[in-house]
Amino acid sequence: MVPIAVTHLFSKLDELLINCLRSCTIDDWKRPTLAKKWTIKDIAAHLLDGNLRSLSMGRDQYFGETPPALESYADLVAWLNELNADWVKACQRISPSLLISLLDCTGPAVTRHYQQLDLAAPAVFGVAWAGEEQSANWFHLAREYTEKWHHQAQIRDALNQTAPLLSREFYHPFLQTMMRGLPHQYRHTDAAYGTTLQLIVGGAAGGHWFLQKTSDGWKLAENGISHTTLRLEPEIAWKLFTKGIRPEEMPLTSTKMINIEGDPDLARPALNMIAVMA
What we know:
The chain is of the alpha+beta class. The chain has helices spanning 10-22, 40-59, 73-90, 96-115, 137-159, 168-179, 182-185, 234-241, 264-271, and strands at residues 196-201, 207-214, 217-221, 228-232, 258-261. It has nine helices and five strands, in the order αααααααββββαβα.
């Protein structure tokens, strides 16, 4: 896979987050978000947890809690969700002002750590939602970028301020990374060799991707003649891939946000892809 360059974006993304949080009123911090049970303050606390985990586990090689016996991907997700919930609950004691200060302090340290990594070397964790038990650092960082991006997008969505993140500079690398999960998502989808799905995300920040069935399974391709085309508007694509909205909550054809030309059954797995670990 061609590496996705994101290291230069972390400091810019963090700056957008800090400025956004500093503009929040006390009532804003209590607003509900696409993260279901989490408010804006809860997501900010989760982002702080992400910074601290990156420094502790990635930089310092200190892993703290040992996971229980995990027999499946679902077990891993359940354990991570439990860790996330514990942290967010504890952070209810922390003021919004202090959360901002801690994010502002830890963000640059995380970026410095990422800048020092050998991008071709094995990462501390594989990108499980793409089916990898072992990943290169560049893919690990791209995954970490999508985590920071989509949680900030959830905050901004609650504030009706998503425009900065939907620029090509920030949104296109997010989409590129999400699409790396398509072959794994389609691993149980049967189709004739050569069958090709084209996935298009509209807007200046979007693009098009081809997924083709080969003798070695489903593979991303640079081009192709599509049998089915799935078009998503940029406002809905990130929400689908991060579980902010599910396909069953909206019609699958002839809408302003989702359009399918061809076989709806071939497009359905892409609509159900969740490229986050929760």
